[in-house]
Design a protein that fits this description.
This protein is an all-alpha fold and 179 residues long. The chain has two domains: 66 residues, Orthogonal Bundle (Diphtheria Toxin Repressor, domain 2); 80 residues, Diphtheria Toxin Repressor, domain 2, CATH 1.10.60. Helices cover 75% and strands 0% of the residues. The protein contains eight helices and no strands. Helix 1 packs across helix 3, helix 1 packs across helix 4 and helix 5 packs across helix 8. The model has no long low-confidence stretch (mean pLDDT 85).
Length: 179
């Protein structure tokens, strides 16, 4: 029998490097969060301070070195999984918001391009004021034709957004468990 250590159980140098890079990426993502999001994550004091310092840095090289330092601090955390899951939660909320805005934008473009889509929109959102909707569509077309500022174009977006958000609030309230 040989007295050589069993190296098969240890991660390879490449794997350790990938793990360190993943932790540095988490640290970099922490620097991109807003105040409220950052406050909602349980971080050690020294890591939170390093993230706040990095957020204030404007020079790329200094910021890069600070993010490397944050990665070093991240390696001292026993389990970075809760931090990763919080960051993923923020990203999913962002993806949902983006999808919502795209949905609203598609409705606005359809309403402006296809006259028959007005009746489809009113069928989908019966609480919509059809007269106001038609007026906004007509005024937006006039704005575009005369190359005027997009006042009615924005107002149409806001009207659609308000209707979509009201529908989502009702749906969310209906899905909530009764107390």
């Amino acid at each position: 029998m040989e007295d050589t250590p069993d190296f098969d159980d240890l991660p390879s140098k490449s794997q350790r490097k990938r793990d360190m890079d993943a932790l540095q990426d988490i640290g970099s993502e922490l620097t991109e969060l807003n105040e409220q999001q950052l406050a909602s994550i349980d971080l050690p004091e020294n890591l939170r301070d390093a993230v706040l310092v990095a957020r204030g840095m404007k020079h790329n090289e200094a910021r890069r070195r600070q993010v490397q330092y944050i990665g070093k601090l991240m390696r001292q955390i026993d389990d970075p999984a809760p931090i990763r899951s919080k960051l993923d939660g923020f990203l999913s909320v962002s993806a949902e918001q983006t999808a919502r805005l795209h949905h609203i934008e598609r409705w606005r473009e359809r309403l402006l391009a296809e006259p028959q889509s007005v009746s489809e929109f009113i069928a989908a959102y019966p609480e919509a004021d059809s007269q106001q909707l038609r007026t906004l569509i007509r005024n937006t077309a006039e704005e575009r034709a005369r190359a005027k500022p997009a006042k009615h174009f924005r107002a149409l977006f806001q009207m659609i957004r308000d209707l979509v958000d009201a529908r989502n609030r009702v749906k969310t309230a209906a899905d909530a468990p009764a107390e």
